[in-house]
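Handover notes (outgoing to incoming on-call)

Open items:
1. Cell division protein FtsL: sequence verified, structure written out, both below. Nothing else pending on this one.
2. Nothing else urgent.
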Amino acid sequence: MAASQRNEAYDFSLFEERESRVIRMPEKKKEKKVQKASAVEGYLRAFLLVVAAAVALSVVGYMVYCKMTLSELGDQLVNAKAELTLADSEFIRLQTDLQEKMATRNIEEQAKALGMERPQANQIEYVVINDTDKVEVAQPSQEKGFFESIFDTIASWLS
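Cell division protein FtsL structure tokens:
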């Protein structure tokens, strides 16, 4: 309660308008500097805008190039898979043909068509081989090789 009973006055002079103490420069000089600065800033902004547009266009171009390359590689992959499937089917077909031609029944039919028949007992001739194996060891040669003779000649000169 003591705070509400205080008798303090507000200082209204703080809220009154005061004269500004800013010194104004002549208008002509200020305009020339602004025009020069704005021309340089304009060129700088235009240059930065062109650079930003070039960078953005380069990024978009690179993305298109990457997508195009990816698409081409995908097409090559599809073509390679198709060739692989075709080669696998050709391999299976050739394997089947080979197995058919190498079947015992077909070999017998082909042999009969060529006039062949199974061997008879009188056509079989046995070869007799000795039961013991013989090994002959070659005698070492007494002749010296080319390099050995050169080495011996040099050794005889030095001794």
